[in-house]
What we know:
The protein is of the alpha/beta class and 217 residues long.
Amino acid sequence: MQHTQQEDFWAGDFGREYTDRNSRPLAEWNAFYRDLYGHTKLEMNAEFLGGLPREARILEVGCNTGMQLVGLQAAGFTNLYGVELQGYAVEKARDFVRGVNILQGSGFDLPFKDNYFDVTCTNGVLIHIAPEDLPRIMGEMVRCSGRYIMGYEYYAPETTAIKYRGNEGFLWKTDFAQVFLDNFPNLRLVKQTLYPYINDAERGNQDVVYLLEKTTI
């Protein structure tokens, strides 16, 4: 499958620098989210996934070094998978997180059978997919999920391009849950929460966590 411009960008040196810059142990990871929103990522996960059995099969698409997977492990989940495009991040993830199945691959071509997971999720990944390519990667997440799709992403009511460290064409924010719903009529919105940045009230920046459920398989 031909790579997108964004995949090539993240698979190269910029992606390696991002991985080194954003890899943190669990305590620092939680402190980062607490400083940003007033909530830890573990608390945010619990709000959306806390009622699931701990043996639920969960796939993170674009897991980078596995910080989110470590957080899910800390919450007691035992059946975790990750797919990551960047080989360097996969190598670091295998040292950073234990007992998780982490594969190198693309979210546009997930190497799993239909309905294999209870949950497929992203954490700050769809923001780096060109808007015209979102239905493709979302379609793979829907295909591989037997029930839920969860996302944690930047939020805006309309698609907005953002210059990212001097680069254009690699970062967007939008209403990602609505994009799912517009493209996949077999989904319904279970829950969505907006998390404003506590130190950025004037600019109004906020992120979103959403949980979608398949109504038919």
